[in-house]
Amino acid sequence: MNFQEEMLEKFRTSRNIVVVTGSGISAESGVPTFRGADGLWKKYRAEELATPRAFNSNPELVWEWYDWRRQLIGKVEPNSGHEIIARMEDYYQEFLLITQNVDGLHRKAGSNNMVEIHGNIWRVRCTHEETITYLEENPIGKLPPMCECGALLRPDVVWFGESLPIEGLVKAEKAIRECDILLVVGTSGYVYPVASFPMAAKAAGAMVVEINIERTPISLVADFTLLGKAGDILPELWNRNPKK
Ligand code: BV8
């Protein structure tokens, strides 16, 4: 792939980079995206299941969906895209990864300085005590899982209509305002408030680079849109950095 020299120079010389990822970074690991052709689960859309209302009215159905995803995610490995992002963390003086994904694959690839801004599918939360635990038995067995206190357990993820974890959101928004480069990988730019981050970074003077297999609303804001698979483009982009 031909990369613009101006962009390569910025990657080589910048000190502060923020990376935002969506489900597209995990697609090459075999995890279905939300809105792509393979994104449908049975006949449901994420927006219909990832809501408090869906969980309150049919916790078993919502848990069936999460258990299906956990079983699928439990069998896959991070791909080269996750691995390159983990290596970037050691190169830049200031680095933050903001992922919308709840699959845990970035952490498995070695990323540490990250915000899982929509939560993590391997954590569960008691709906009564609010206590959080890791529930990694896969499959869970009887659905929906119950807390010892007798209340329902829910996935510790952010559903539509729920606020993002304030600590992570404040950390993300501060990083977005201060970064030299915002690299956006594998997201349709559909879900807010993360979808507003590219515009905010641009307004603060950052260079915005998008990696996606297709153009998205983010392409209108990005200085560069690199069309192709993240697992191909990220290694190619990174290998062009002689100092890495
Ligand atoms: C909130 C966790 C306060 C659960 C998810 C304006 C401001 C604030 C809020 C809103 C607003 N407008 C609307 C809202 C409400 C809502 C929202 O955004 N609705 C949408 C439907 C319009 N936002 C919220 O409710 C958020 N809360 O703001 O609180 C508030 C509340 C109410 C009202 C006002 C304010 C909470 C949102 C979090 C929802 N939870 N997930 C779970 O995972 O089960 S969202 C879900 O979508 C996932 O996290 C997912 O990551 C995320 C985003 O989707 P993408 O990752 O982009 O996935 P998608 O399939 O769409 O795209 C994949 C992309 O990859 C594609 O572009 C594809 O081309 C590309 N691709 C595919 N393969 C590859 C690839 N790219 C590269 N390489 C490849 N190989």
Bound molecules: ligand BV8
Oligomer: single chain
The neighbouring-strand order within the major sheet is 3-2-1-7-8-9
Structural class: alpha/beta
Residue stretches low in confidence (pLDDT < 50, at least 5 long) are: none
Fraction of helical residues: 25-40%
Number of strands: 9
Total of domains: 2
Terminal CA distance reads 19 Å
How much beta, percentage-wise?
15-25%
Q: Topology as H/E string?
A: HEHHHHEHEEEEHEHEEH
- Give average pLDDT, whole number: 95
Estimated radius of gyration: 18 Å
Q: What is the CATH class name of the largest domain?
A: Alpha Beta
CATH H-level superfamily of the largest domain:
TPP-binding domain
Count up the helices. 9
CATH topology of the largest domain: Rossmann fold
Task: Supply the CATH architecture of the largest domain.
Answer: 3-Layer(aba) Sandwich
